[in-house]
Amino acid sequence: MSAPLYNTDILRLAAGIPHHARLAEPQGTAERRSPVCGSRVTVDVTLGPDDRVAEVGLLVRACALGQASASLLAAAILGRTPAELAATSDALSAWLAGEPERPDWPGIEVLMPARDYPARHASIRLAFEAAAEAAQTACATRGVERAHG
C-alpha cells in the first residue's frame, strides 16, 4: 500500500514556505504555470559575486504539492549555482517520471508518494523549473553587467 498523497509532512511544508516574498530588485525572475491545475510559481533570485544564489523570493499560488515543492526548494537554494539548479530540475523531472535515482536535494523524498500521480508532476516541478530559469537569467544579466561595467 502506498503512502497517502497529502500526508502531514507535505501539508507542513506547504504551510511554511521560506522566502515567501518577492525580491525588490532581482537579477533574474521566472514564472511557471501548470496548465493542468492552474498552479503558478514565481521565483526571483540575485547571485553573489561567486555566481551562487545569494537571495531568493517566491510567490507561490499552487496546490499543496506545489507549495511543498516550493518550500523544499526555498529551504536549500541559497548557495546553489545556476548549473546545480538546472541539474536538479532535470533530475526531479526524471525521478517523477520513474527513474530510480532520487534528486540530490534535502527533503525531496517527502514527495515520493506523488510519483504515482502523473497529473500532479507539473505542479511539483514548477518551483524547481522557475528557479533554474531565474538563476540562468541572473547569470546572463551579471555577464552583461560585467561586460559593460
Would you spell out the secondary-structure blueprint of this structure?
Blueprint: H1 8-15, E1 28-33, E2 40-47, E3 53-61, H2 64-76, H3 82-96, H4 118-148
Antiparallel strand pairs: 1-2, 2-3
Helix pairs in contact: 1-2, 2-4, 3-4
Index terms:
alpha+beta, 149 residues, globular, 3 strands, single chain, 15% strand, 4 helices
Order of helices and strands: HEEEHHH
Given helix and strand content, the structural type is: alpha+beta
Task: Please mark out the parts with pLDDT under 50 across 5 or more consecutive residues, or reply none.
Answer: none
The portion of residues assigned to helices is 40-55%
Describe the structure.
Helix content is 45%, strand content 15%. The chain has four helices and three strands; from the N terminus they run αβββααα. α2 (64-76) runs parallel beside α4.
